[in-house]
Design brief:
By secondary structure, the chain is of the alpha/beta class. The protein contains 18 helices and 28 strands. It folds into two domains: 3-214 and 266-288, P-loop containing nucleotide triphosphate hydrolases (Rossmann fold, 3-Layer(aba) Sandwich); 335-521 and 552-618, no CATH class. Strand 24 (456-466) and strand 25 (469-481) form a beta hairpin.
């Protein structure tokens, strides 16, 4: 009896764990049959399932557990990302299955019994036991020998289980004493080059589910590119018309036609079998998802930007997300430059930030204006000669904090926040930042790697050496994931402008569009595009994404990253539409008499002593 046979005969779906309670039917999602048969196959040692959500992969795990408890007793371990996830699975998934499936009811002890055979994370049954652990608990992973290992959502596992190393490898070591061991790895993928499930799938025979067209009979893998929908006369999308189109004859399938075609599909391997069976699925195969809902999710994700699009690619398409970090062509950017009066801020720019890169003989500063949708305009590029060892250099940087740039409305604007790199001459940077105050200045430290949950963390208090004396917690430091902002910058540089362009009309440009002025030269553009994102392997063979320089000088890119971090620190990524509207209302147009409103204005003054300048248009 295979696992799918057992499930069809015995498994009962519980009302609190399934939208369709009652008798299990593998035919409801036919692709699940091949996965469960692979787990039953004695020749298969490892099964890898890389898929989207909503395809029933967790129910496959449940069936594997139920089958072995009833038909082939063995020590079983289920590994979840955290101990809390382990408890949730035990209470919400396993317990209802054990209660409602007749063949399991008398094999699992009553949870109210006092003999300890049915605890939340450890359950005994005749011939074996079930242990449920979190990948963040090394003691649970290394506690006992296991024959059947089921690892769910492995891409959410921590990098290391405590100090003992990779939790998947740690769990696999528990199976080495069994000649007939079985390892099942299940997950929705994450970032390319960092995804455990993708690496495991690439080492498998890479099976994909081929579906015959009801019209022409052509076998095909269902892909998102074949999902199409109409637009109205105004160009608006109509996701309610979404249909799947055959890759061969272009026949349009309704949801019901698609589900019927999937029931006749079959798995086909793309690589030789080596003991590991790999399966890939996306949400288009799911009998519980309509294409209209997928189209709406896609349009919403695309409008939301990189963060939400990554979620769609991972959870709906079951594919890894590739950070769009390849260097754009600087010559293309030459043709995208726009003309507005030098030293002025276009009407759609609502606040200023600056990024400062400290070099041996100079400090380079780029001033950027920001508007709705995180559109940005390069306002000024300043090189302060002298370097961190010259007091005059720091005085000029201090003066820059009080300088103003005219907004298109006539309102003078100052820098709301300046982020300065602390990687070179850290003590000098801390001393200057402490002198001018941390209200307008943010010392930053860049870290490699992607952190999309929070690309900026802090501030943390760090020790600083001021005038030869060490001050505990004397400076505030922000830590930024430079890879995240570099990838975002390059993605914004690839956006196409509208046919009719106007630098001051931000509404016509896509969110995130990066506006470059006509005065910027080729050297600055080359510096902005001076790096590329590549996949490299370390000594242990693990792949990771890494930024590498295409040319030596990259100050423009660094300054952009710091200015972007300054905007994040101010909270621009989290502002509501009302906040943006309030900000825009402070830039009233010049009246008929030519007078400029006084609110939000700042006069230029040479700063001879320590002072802090705060712009009231930022609140």
């Amino acid at each position: 009896m295979t696992i799918s046979d057992w499930a069809d005969q015995n498994r009962r779906l519980s009302s609190e764990a399934s939208a369709e309670p009652g008798q299990w039917r593998t035919a409801r999602a036919e692709y699940q049959r091949g996965i469960m048969e692979a787990v039953s196959d004695a020749a298969t040692e490892t099964v890898v399932i890389m898929s989207s959500s909503q395809v029933g992969k967790t129910e496959v795990v449940n069936n594997c557990v139920g089958y072995h408890i009833d038909q082939d007793p063995a020590p079983i371990m289920v590994v979840m990302p955290t101990e809390r996830d382990a408890e949730t699975w035990s209470k919400d998934r396993f317990s209802p299955m054990a209660r409602d499936t007749p063949s399991l009811q008398h094999k699992i002890a009553n949870p109210k019994s006092r003999d300890g055979n049915n605890k939340i994370l450890h359950k005994r049954f005749p011939g074996g036991h079930l242990t449920i652990v979190g990948a963040n608990a090394p003691s649970g992973l290394a506690s006992r020998p296991i024959r059947l290992l089921l690892c769910d959502e492995v891409d959410r596992y921590p990098f290391s289980a405590g100090a003992e190393g990779d939790p998947v490898n740690l769990a696999k070591k528990r199976t080495v004493t069994f000649w007939n061991r079985k390892i099942v790895l299940v997950s929705t993928p994450t970032n390319k080059g960092e995804s455990r499930i993708e690496a495991a799938f690439e080492e498998s025979d890479q099976r994909r589910f081929w579906v015959p067209c009801p019209d022409c009979g052509h076998d095909q893998i269902l892909t998102w590119g074949q999902v199409k929908w109409d637009k109205d006369e105004a160009g608006g999308h109509r996701p309610g018309t979404a249909l799947y189109h055959c890759a061969e004859c272009d026949a349009a399938w309704t949801d019901e036609t698609r589900w019927a075609a999937i029931s006749k599909g079959r798995w086909r391997a793309e690589a030789p079998f080596n003991g590991t069976a790999g399966f890939h699925l996306n949400e288009i195969y799911s009998p519980w998802v309509r294409l209209e809902a997928m189209a709406k999710a896609f349009l919403s994700a695309r409008a939301g930007g990189d963060e939400t699009m990554k979620t769609f690619v991972n959870t709906s398409l079951g594919e890894t997300w590739m950070e769009s970090g390849e260097a754009p062509d600087w010559q293309r950017l030459q043709g995208l430059k726009e003309e507005w009066r030098a030293g002025t801020v276009p009407a759609a720019g609502l606040f200023l930030t600056a990024g400062a890169d400290v070099q041996k003989d100079r400090i380079e500063v780029d001033v950027w204006a920001w508007g709705r949708g995180l559109q940005s305009w390069l306002i000024d590029h300043i090189v302060i000669e002298g370097g961190p060892g010259d007091p005059v250099c720091w005085q000029k940087l201090t003066d820059l904090l009080g300088r103003t740039w005219d907004h298109a409305s006539g309102t003078p604007m100052t820098i709301a926040r300046l982020a300065i790199d602390t990687g070179y001459e850290t003590a000098a940077v801390y001393a200057w930042a402490r002198q001018v105050g941390f209200g307008q200045v943010a010392p930053v430290k860049g870290l490699e790697g992607f952190n999309r949950a929070s690309p900026v963390t802090g501030p943390t208090f760090v020790d600083a050496t001021i005038a030869g004396k060490r001050l505990r917690r004397g400076a505030r430091l922000w830590t930024i994931a430079t890879s995240t902002f570099k990838a975002e910058t390059y993605r914004f540089l690839r956006l196409d402008p509208p046919e009719v362009t106007s630098p001051g009309d931000g509404e016509r440009f896509p969110p995130g569009f990066l506006h470059l002025p006509g005065w910027v030269d080729a050297e600055w553009l080359k510096q902005l595009t001076a790096e590329q994102l590549v996949t490299v392997k370390n000594k242990r063979g693990f792949a990771k994404l890494e930024w590498q320089k295409l040319r030596e000088r990259n100050e423009a890119l660094d300054c952009r990253v710091y200015a972007r971090a300054a905007a994040w620190i101010l909270g621009a990524d989290r502002w509501s539409a009302a906040r943006w509207e309030e900000l825009a209302s402070q830039f009233a147009a010049v009246d008929a008499k030519g007078t400029v409103p006084t609110r939000g204005t700042h006069k230029i003054r040479k700063a001879q002593v320590r002072r802090v300048v705060r712009s009231n248009y930022m609140g």
